[in-house]
Amino acid sequence: MRPEPTRQANQVWVSDITYLPLANGSKAYLCTSQAMVSNQVVGWHILAAMKHRLIINDLQFNFWTQPPTLGLLVHSDRNSRYCGKVHRKLLHDH
């Protein structure tokens, strides 16, 4: 038997990074986080370089604007930026 999907707001967020091609030929990087129940974007951040700060800033903004529920699950593709010590500590602290 499959468990019932969650119906509580801010219980599951998904996050990913994509690049945005700019008119001058360079790229900007966009990190977004989306709440699964509402399908709303809970936060985003853009940087000119793919750095750990990109997802840290996004996550800090999310916690500030969208208080998570106890047991919040943040899902990502587990690339090196999402597996870094600072990101994991920030998740653990909240």
Automatic annotation (TrEMBL):
Read off the InterPro entries from this record: Integrase_cat-core, RNaseH-like_sf, RNaseH_sf, Transposase_IS3/IS150/IS904
Where does the Integrase catalytic domain lie?
Answer: 1-94
What Gene Ontology molecular function terms does this protein carry? nucleic acid binding
Pfam families given for it? Answer: rve (PF00665)
Classification via SUPFAM superfamilies: Ribonuclease H-like
Name the Gene Ontology biological process terms.
Answer: DNA integration
Gene3D superfamilies associated with the record: Ribonuclease H-like superfamily/Ribonuclease H
Extract the PANTHER family matched here: INTEGRASE PROTEIN, TRANSPOSASE INSF FOR INSERTION SEQUENCE IS3B-RELATED
Q: What is the name of the protein in this document?
A: DDE-type integrase/transposase/recombinase
